[in-house]
TrEMBL record:
MurNAc-LAA domain location: 244-399
EC number: 3.5.1.28
Matching Gene3D superfamilies: 2.60.40.3500, Zn-dependent exopeptidases (3.40.630.40)
Alphabetical keyword list: Hydrolase, Signal
Catalytic activity: Hydrolyzes the link between N-acetylmuramoyl residues and L-amino acid residues in certain cell-wall glycopeptides
Signal peptide coordinates: 1-22
Pfam family, one: Amidase_3
Protein name: N-acetylmuramoyl-L-alanine amidase
Entry keyword annotation includes Hydrolase: yes
Keyword Signal: yes
Amino acid sequence: MRPGLIAALLGLILLLSAAARADAPAAQIDMGGSAIVMGASPNPVARLVGRDVARPFTLRLSVSRPIPYRVFLLDGPPRLVVDLDGLDLGGHPASTLFGADHLPGFRWGRMRNGWTRIVAELPGPYRVDRASLRAAAARPLIEIALEPVAPEAFAPRIGAAGDALRDLPAPADTPEPPPDDRRLRVVLDPGHGGIDPGAISDGQTEADLVLEFAQGLASALRARGIDVSLTREDDSFVGLEARMTAARQAGADLFVSLHADALPVGQAAGAAVYIWSGTDDDSAARQLALRHDRDDLLSGIDLGGRDDALATALMGVARTDTQPRSKNFAKFLTSRMALEGIVMHRRPVQGARFSVLKAPDFPSVLLELGFLTDSGDRARLTDPGWRARMTRTIADAIAAWANDDSARRALLRR
């Protein structure tokens, strides 16, 4: 990892505690202290691209308080992307930032969940030389320094961070409508499908069972005025990354992945709710995580070895908002299941390294409705009465969680 990126990583880790302060007011940008400062043209790699000369430059952002941020490069065309958690642009157009006219394009705008995105189009390939936050100054200053490089040295973002953060909404100069102005959006993810039937027992396939259940749950949620979409509508294969992308494109407020897996007899029974965890809680969770990721290999997608320290830190920062909300929904769901007498696993809420839960920008859970390898679970999963009761339970939990989540976030905006 390059020294500049190491510095950025250390800065992000130091800021994790700041991100956890949910009651902190929005940071304000100081336009007078913010600018794009161009440097001299370095002889070895400087070249003309249209009317622009590839020169080093520094993006300086003066803010009212320290905030978490993430930095990466994209290609097609070359761009610098800076995401900042809790930054209020104060209605200033991106074009008013001093020095913005030195770049081929420069824009900023709000994203979901309180993040702000800045996109700077580059006149050629660059590298991030330094990313730092000087929090001890009179006003904290974020500085991101870039240097031009030869085309073969350009390294735009790829790998796990790109997978989990893929297809974030494009920034705009006008803010999106407040969340309260639209209906709740839930994305249901029936596991497996197509060439991957999932668990099979007594002629029942997990893929068919959870798809039918998801369709019934979707109808129940729509009857309550909730917008619902499914990651698959039929018996087709959808890769793990594509499931996250579908949820993001739908503007998911909540992502629920549905499964009815298989484990050795006696190892697991009862419904269980999983939330993202970098370390699996027990051997059963590890087996399930390996099974889910291995299933993606059926379509030639290899998720192995794609995480690195920087990607983990970036996603960790983003999860400071969504992870507590995922955990809160898991508690609402298991509480409702207990009230309805739904048989649950001895540990109803667990953490696991399921790739389908990696996306850090919306709350998500994976619900094991039961395990097809357990005779009791199998009987319940195929019983219309139990399925109707479970559908009502999940719908009640989603509605109750949404009301609680909306109230909490309204308090945080004050």
